[in-house]
């Protein structure tokens, strides 16, 4: 991404935040963070603060904590030695000058001793509950009032009152918005929403001392590539964390190569290591059926056996989701006597229809900041249908649409690069009919 485009996305994210579109803004800020925005601009680390605020206002507390940790790390110098001391490197003017800010930031860093500093430097925990309260409650509330953001359906009064970990009550509207924000997948959304409700009621019974039967929440996702399986798994991880079921809410994605060893005794430790890394979150095993397709001398069966035991042992703080083509996954579940019974339910992901695929293209253009007229959109819809009809299985649904977008983006860049005069801003972000073709 070019610097100008990065700054455009940065400004777009802030505009969305000012409108109360917190989730969309947070997605853009995280995209910029992954692409190295912080290291390329003076005070670029302020994006951590914006990402933290918008995540907190969405109810994504775990992610918000991570972004604020990074912001603190980037803005504080800690000096160690016999007389440890610390001082803020810089606190950008956007942070409200409230007593709680400097008081707790300074109080936090000046009490650090050498051993405490080493631990803090390695883990960067928010060790002070007041500091956590400042970033997860005071700062987001200040943002709402300072910029006079209306408490609309996207930023309701209830969603702006944050609850700290240990008593997590995620906003139902925000929880649903994550699923509703996905194109298509109506049957999947209904199944996952039921799942959320089952888990929440189970936890209510547990917290009130009522009897709760032991159960597993491991799942099977079936469907063709590019149908949103990984995205839904990530949403499940985040919501399960907010509900209080999972302690971290992260997603670990693996395939056969991460689980199967190359020699005797190598596989079980690999599986154990992967399981350990996923504790507190969701382990997503793509093309899981490949574990059972290696032949007589393959170690895939050993991986399955080890996984079955560890899934059961860690079911209180781990959700395993195995995914792949429907027919292959049915065969996979029959390869171990105890495997099928370890999974709570199977959710099938249908292929997207042509209108949904076109909607995915429109969404990518929106995120990337591209414009187009109705003629171009109709051309893209026809191109998607043509590519899909050529080889439906290899097209890859959403993946296929992303591939088409990338090729169109390259066509546009090639066209603009040949211009004698430097293109205008509008030309840089506009797709025209000439761009809609594939080699």
Word description of this protein:
This protein is an alpha/beta fold and 439 residues long. It has 21 helices and 7 strands. Helix 2 (22-34) packs antiparallel against helix 4, helix 4 (46-58) packs across helix 8 (129-146) and helix 14 (267-278) packs parallel to helix 15. It is globular. Mean pLDDT is 76; it is low at 77-129 and 150-170.
Could you name the key traits of this structure?
439 residues, alpha/beta, Rossmann fold, Helicase, Ruva Protein, domain 3, 3 domains, five-stranded parallel beta sheet, two-stranded antiparallel sheet, 21 helices, 7 strands, 8% strand, globular
Largest sheet strand order: 4-5-6-3-7
Using the alpha-carbon principal axes, give the shape.
globular
Under the CATH scheme, the architecture of the largest domain is 3-Layer(aba) Sandwich
Instruction: Give the termini distance in whole angstroms.
Output: 23 Å
- Domain count: 3
Assigned CATH class of the largest domain: Alpha Beta
The helix tally amounts to: 21
Low-confidence stretches: 77-129, 150-170
Helix amount: 55-70%
Structure classification = alpha/beta
Q: Strand-residue fraction?
A: 5-15%
The averaged pLDDT comes out at: 76
- Main sheet overview: 5 strands, parallel
Number of strands: 7
Rg calc: 24 Å
The CATH topology of the largest domain is Rossmann fold
């Amino acid at each position: 991404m070019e610097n100008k485009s990065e700054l455009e996305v940065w400004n777009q994210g802030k505009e969305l935040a000012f409108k109360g579109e917190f989730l969309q803004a947070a997605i853009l800020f995280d995209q910029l963070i992954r692409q190295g925005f912080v290291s390329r601009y003076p005070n670029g680390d302020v994006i951590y603060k914006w990402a933290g605020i918008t995540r907190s206002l969405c109810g994504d507390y775990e992610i918000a904590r991570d972004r604020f940790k990074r912001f603190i790390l980037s803005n504080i110098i800690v000096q160690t030695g016999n007389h440890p001391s610390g001082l803020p490197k810089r606190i950008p003017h956007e942070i409200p000058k409230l007593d709680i800010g400097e008081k707790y930031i300074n109080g936090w860093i000046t009490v650090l001793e050498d051993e405490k500093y080493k631990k803090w430097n390695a883990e960067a925990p928010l060790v002070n509950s007041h500091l956590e309260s400042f970033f997860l409650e005071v700062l987001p509330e200040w943002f709402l009032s300072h910029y006079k953001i209306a408490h609309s359906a996207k930023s309701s009064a209830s969603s702006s009152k944050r609850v700290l970990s240990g008593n997590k009550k995620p906003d139902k509207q925000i929880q649903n918005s994550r699923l509703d924000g996905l194109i298509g997948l109506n049957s999947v959304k209904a199944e996952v929403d039921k799942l959320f409700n089952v888990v929440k009621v189970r936890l209510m019974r547990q917290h009130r001392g009522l009897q709760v039967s032991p159960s597993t929440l491991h799942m099977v996702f079936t469907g063709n590539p590019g149908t949103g399986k990984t995205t839904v798994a990530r949403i499940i991880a985040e919501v399960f964390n907010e509900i209080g079921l999972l302690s971290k809410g992260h997603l670990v994605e693996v395939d056969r190569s991460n689980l199967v060893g190359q020699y005797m005794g190598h596989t079980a430790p690999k599986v154990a290591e992967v399981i350990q890394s996923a504790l507190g979150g969701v382990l997503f095993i793509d093309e899981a059926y490949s574990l059972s397709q290696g032949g007589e001398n393959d170690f895939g069966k050993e991986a399955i056996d080890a996984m079955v035991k560890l899934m059961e042992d860690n079911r209180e703080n781990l959700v395993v989701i195995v995914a792949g083509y429907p027919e292959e996954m049915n065969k996979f579940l029959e390869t171990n006597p105890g495997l099928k019974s370890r999974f709570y339910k199977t959710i099938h992901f249908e292929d997207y229809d042509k209108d949904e695929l076109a909607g995915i293209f429109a969404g990518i253009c929106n995120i990337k900041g591209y414009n187009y007229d109705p003629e171009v959109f109709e051309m893209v819809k026809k191109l998607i249908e043509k590519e899909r009809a050529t080889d439906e299985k290899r097209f890859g649904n959403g993946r296929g649409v992303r591939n088409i977008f990338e090729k169109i983006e390259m066509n546009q860049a090639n066209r603009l690069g040949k211009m004698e005069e430097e293109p205008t801003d509008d030309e840089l972000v506009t797709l025209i009919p000439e761009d809609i073709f594939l080699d």
